[in-house]
Structures are given as C-alpha cells and as structure tokens.
C-alpha cells in the first residue's frame, strides 16, 4: 500500500513538472492563443523551411498536422473538436465540404498574390469564382516504372498493366477511385461513371489483373520503388517526381487513354480560430518565390505562373510534370459522386482486394 | 482498507465507468448498425454482411487470427517455461515486455526494411547462395510480424500460471513414476490451462481486428474485419456498415470468451493491442 502511494505521488509529480516545463517553453517562445495557426495538410506536402520563414515574418506560431486521405481529413473536421485554420483538400472533397457547410469564404482583399495564379486554374467547376478555395498544387495519376528492370515497356496504355509478364509486380494505391479509374479509363469509360453496370464490368476487368498485383499500399510505395523492390506502381505525378529524383532508372507516364487530373486547394475550415492568420498564410504561399521553392521541394505542379518563371526550366518544360493544354484536355477531374456511389466504389474495390490471393 | 470492505459506494465509480465506456458504446454501435447512409432505419447492412464478400472476409480473418494465435502459443509456452527456470526471471520477463512499449507502427515500419529486397534477411540469403525472396507482402511476413507483436501478451499469462505452479506437484508426479511427457500432459498443462486460455483471449481477439499491418506488411493481400471497419468509417463514411461489422466482431468476441472462459479464479490478463 505504502509503495503504491509512493509510486502514485512520484508519477503525479513527474507529470506536473513536465506540464510546467511545457508551459514555460510555450511562454518563452511567446505564443498566446491568438497567434497560433493550425495547418492540416497531406504528409510531405510542404517545404518545412517555408513554415519557419512564415513564422519569422509574421510572428505567428504554426502547428502542423498531417492526414493521408481526403475522407479522413473531412471526417475529422466534421466531427468538430479541432481548430484547423488551413487545410488542403482535393477538388471533389471541396464540393462535399461546401455541401456540408464546413468552409469559410475567402476574402481576396487580403490575398493580393492571387494575381500570380494561372487563370487556367481559377474558377473551375468544383468551386466557381474560387469562393472557398485557392489552388495549391495540381497533378495527374499515372504509372511510375523502373526502366532498368522493365526493359522495353512504356505503359502508353493502361492495358499494359494486365500484361502477363508483370505477374506479382504491380503496386496499386489504396484508394478506390484511382484503382477503379485505371479499369474505367482502360475501357474508355468516364472516371466519374455512376452506371452500376459499367462499374461492375470495370471491377470484373480489374479482378483479371489480380495475379499481377504485388500489393495495395499508400505512401510506403516511394521507398519500395526507390530501392528497386518494386518495378511498377500506380501513383500521383508528384510522388513519382520524388521517386525519380532519388532513382534515375524510374520514369513516369500518363497512359494515352486519359487519366485523372486533380487539384489540391487551400481552404479555411469553419473551425478556424485565426481567420486573419489563415489569409496571411494563403497569401504567403502564393508569393512567387515561396511557391517556386515549395514546388521544387514537393515535386507536384504549381498553378503559380509567376513561380514557374523562377524555377528550373528543365522541370517546367517537362511534359511529365507540366503536360500541355491538349494533353490536359484528355484528363478528367473527379466529381463528387455522393455518398452512395462512393460507397459502391468502395464495396467494389473491397471485392477486388479480396480477390488478390 | 479493512473497514471499508463492504461499502457499496466503493463500487459506484466502477459501475459508472462500465456504463459510460462499455455499455453505452456497445448500444451506440448496435444503433448505428441499423442506420443506412441517410440515417433511416434499415436491416440492409445485415443483409449486406451475409453477401459473399464479408463472409469470405470473416472466414479469412478467423483463419489468420487462428494462425497467429497458434504460432504465438507455440513460441510462448516453451519460452515462458524456460523463463521460469532461469535465475533472473524478472529480468528476462522485462526483456520480453520492453519491445511492447515501442509504438506498434514503428516496429511495423522497421519490418518493412528488414523484409525488403535489400534488407538484412535477403542479404543473408544471398551470402549463403539462396536467390532473393519476396518476403514482404506475403502470408508469411504478415503472420510473422503479428506473432512478434502479440508474443508478450501470450507469454505473460502463461508465465504467471507456470510460476505459480507448485513444484512439489511435479516432483510428486515424477516420484510416482510419470515420465516427463506424462507429467507435462497430465500435471503441468492442465494446471496452467487458465494462463493459456487468457493468452489465447489476449491474442486471438485483437488478431481478428488487426489493421494497419495488413496494409503495411501484407500490402492489403490480407483483409481482416478490422481493415473493413476502418475503411467504412474513414473512407466510405458508411458508419452503418462499419457498425454492423463491429457488431459481428463483438459477437465473435463474446463467443470466444465463452469458449475460453474460466470457471475458477485464475490469472486473468486482458491485454489490449491494435
């Protein structure tokens, strides 16, 4: 009994001391509630030096948290109890968030740098007049592959993924719309198909790919591709850029049948406690030099045309990262299909996953 | 403490706790399982569960949970036995427990490196002249990592019951002419059965709902009920279906508890792991 009491007292004491130390540290760095900006972003999706620069310029302390799927992010914001000031959802999620009234409108008087954005990327269908969102990055979905291991294949067609020579080699991303999209694209159907028959046919076709599938994973794919553990993967353009930077044998291709074109955008969730700081941050990120440095670090394509002038021309002119307007016309943006259809996509995707044995 | 022994008030915090954190969540889960995407009452989720995909998933979850429990037991029983025979029991026990203090995800990521094509296992195979093997994303790697994670939860209850075993009983059995095997089968094993049962509970039930390592280590080639629940809640946002799967998981757990339930008081160790 005595030792139990002693142990309890010691633990409480230690906790108290640590809490005190933490609060002292907070104070010495001069943080009060008002000057904090909480950013909720995808993993590996910002140059952290820029956050430090922003903190120095504005005196606002940044708390940085990450998510790994639009849906998880939205669920967390919807459930409340969070105070995110900035988040970076993709276009179809913005539609959903608008529907559910989770976003605050953006005041462009506080964001003069919006002039740096290429008008091609403004006023898009998912958010007309950019009332709630400011473009952050854009990119495509395609195939990254190792030319040293897979000699002579170029993946100009999605159907190449069904090639028997790729038995047990293909890595897919753990996301229903991207994977079913492969199959839908290969059949010349729309990525936004809501026709249950088409979706069923696309799943049946996918199941034929099962013997080729090595794994269905998330961001871990980067390391596997870089190490040469895997030779071909379905991925996003910027993730492919990261891999290619580290392993020169890798290259990226968007098959000719077309693919997904996506936009991630900065938004201010309803939960924001520092709306002014959020505007400051958006304006800061749109600055040409900042955007150029960020694009260089992250590897995705920036919609900031002033930044493009400051970047390495070799990257900017690389069609793999910055496809021409004609190619882009062949790419399609996801639409919000509604809960029921998304449920159907996911059930079918689950069925496909169960077939990989 | 003597004088307070029978005070009924002492139990109030316990009842409140149980009501708030055990009973209320179960009722909520059961309630949500009867809702469809638009919040209307329906039993469609249950009908959906009995279509091919989820039944197949249940079967495969049980199969992998069985394999994981079996191998954990095969490793843990002898290990626990040997530990009771060592001089510094507590030290050895601590050595086994310490890894379970490390975050599960960190350990899992470490295994990605170990099992990789350029990882230590494959380099070892290469030096002894065996060609590189695909280890990651196989059933083997999945079961191996899961067993590794669950071993402490199996060893502890078995160790406790072995340690409590009166050695006089073993000497008596040996004196009376029982062979080593018979002693084990007729004396040691029955007397430590409670520990084994606790261990099975502590491993089998969490193993049924494993997720995350199904993706990281098995590359989604193994899909457990836990993975499906995670997906329904976070991706599909179909809380109804997610809850329905959870209801079945809870049912399975009750059934398992019934089968491995203990009649007399014994060492009970309910471990929790993701």
TrEMBL record, chain A:
It comes from Viridibacillus soli. PANTHER family: SPERMIDINE/PUTRESCINE-BINDING PERIPLASMIC PROTEIN, SPERMIDINE_PUTRESCINE-BINDING PERIPLASMIC PROTEIN. Keywords: Periplasm, Signal, Transport. The keyword Signal applies. This is Spermidine/putrescine ABC transporter substrate-binding protein. It comes from the Bacteria. It is found in: Periplasm. The keyword Signal applies.
Automatic annotation (TrEMBL), chain B:
It is found in: Cell membrane. The keyword Protein transport does not apply. It comes from the Bacteria. Residues 58-260 form the ABC transmembrane type-1 domain. Pfam families: BPD_transp_1 (PF00528). Keywords: Cell membrane, Membrane, Transmembrane, Transmembrane helix, Transport. Its main location: membrane. It is a multi-pass membrane protein. The chain crosses the membrane at residues 12-32, 62-84, 91-115, 135-159, 199-218, 238-259. Belongs to the binding-protein-dependent transport system permease family. CysTW subfamily. This is ABC transporter permease.
């Amino acid at each position: 009994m005595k030792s139990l009491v002693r142990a309890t007292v010691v633990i409480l004491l230690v906790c108290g001391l640590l809490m005190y130390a933490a609060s002292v540290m907070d104070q010495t760095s001069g943080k009060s509630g008002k000057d904090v900006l909480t950013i909720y972003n995808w993993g590996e999706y910002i140059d952290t030096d820029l956050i430090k620069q922003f903190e120095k310029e504005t005196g606002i302390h940044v708390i940085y948290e990450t998510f790994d799927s639009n849906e998880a992010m939205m669920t967390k914001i919807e459930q409340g109890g969070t105070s995110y000031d900035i988040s970076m959802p993709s276009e179809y999620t913005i539609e959903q968030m608008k529907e559910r009234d989770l976003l605050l409108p953006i005041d462009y008087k506080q964001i003069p740098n919006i002039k740096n954005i290429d008008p091609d990327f403004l006023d898009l269908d998912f958010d007309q007049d950019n009332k709630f969102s400011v473009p952050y990055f854009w990119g495509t979905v395609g195939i990254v592959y190792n030319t040293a291991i897979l000699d002579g294949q170029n993946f100009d067609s999605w159907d190449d993924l069904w090639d028997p020579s790729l038995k047990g080699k293909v890595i897919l991303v753990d996301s229903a719309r991207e994977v079913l999209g492969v199959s839908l694209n290969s059949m010349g159907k729309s990525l936004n198909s809501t026709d249950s028959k088409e979706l069923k046919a696309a799943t049946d076709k996918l199941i034929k790919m099962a013997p080729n599938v090595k794994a269905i994973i998330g961001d871990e794919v980067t390391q596997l591709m870089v190490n040469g553990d895997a030779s071909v993967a379905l991925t996003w353009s910027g993730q492919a850029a990261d891999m290619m930077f580290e392993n020169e044998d890798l290259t990226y291709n968007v098959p000719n049948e077309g693919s997904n074109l996506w936009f991630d955008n900065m938004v201010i969730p309803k939960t924001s406690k520092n709306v002014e700081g959020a505007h400051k941050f958006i304006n800061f990120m749109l600055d040409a030099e900042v955007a150029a440095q960020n694009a260089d670090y992250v590897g995705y394509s920036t919609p900031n045309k002033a930044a493009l002038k400051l970047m390495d021309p070799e990257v900017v002119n690389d069609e793999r990262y910055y496809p021409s307007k004609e190619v882009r016309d062949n790419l399609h943006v996801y639409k919000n299909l509604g809960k029921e259809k998304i449920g159907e996509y996911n059930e079918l995707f689950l069925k496909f996953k169960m077939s990989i044995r | 403490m003597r004088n307070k022994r029978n005070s009924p008030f002492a139990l109030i915090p316990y009842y409140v706790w149980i009501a708030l954190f055990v009973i209320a969540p179960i009722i909520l889960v059961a309630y949500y399982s009867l809702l469809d995407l638009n919040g209307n009452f329906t039993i469609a989720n249950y009908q959906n569960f009995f279509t091919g995909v989820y039944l197949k998933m249940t079967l495969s979850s049980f199969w992998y949970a069985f394999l994981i429990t079996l191998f954990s037991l095969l490793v843990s029983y002898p290990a626990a036995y040997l530990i009771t025979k060592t001089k510094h029991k507590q030290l050895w026990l601590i050595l086994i427990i310490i890894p379970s203090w490390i975050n599960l995800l960190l350990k899992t990521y470490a295994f990605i490196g170990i099992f990789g094509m350029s990882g230590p296992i494959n380099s070892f195979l290469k030096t002894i002249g065996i060609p590189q093997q695909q280890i990651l994303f196989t059933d083997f790697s999945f079961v191996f990592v899961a067993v590794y994670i669950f071993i402490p939860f199996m060893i502890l209850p078995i160790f406790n019951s072995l340690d409590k075993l009166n050695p006089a009983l073993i000497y008596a059995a040996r004196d009376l002419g029982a062979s080593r095997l018979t002693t084990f089968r007729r004396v040691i094993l029955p007397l430590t059965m409670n520990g084994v049962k606790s261990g099975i509970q502590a491993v089998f039930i969490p193993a049924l709902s494993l997720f995350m390592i199904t993706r990281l280590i098995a590359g989604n080639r193994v899909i457990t009920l836990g993975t499906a629940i995670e997906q329904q809640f976070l991706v599909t946002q179909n809380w109804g279906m997610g809850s329905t799967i959870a209801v079945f998981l809870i049912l399975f757990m009750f059934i398992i508890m019934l089968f491995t339930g203990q009649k007399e008081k014994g060492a009970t160790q309910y471990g929790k792991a993701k």
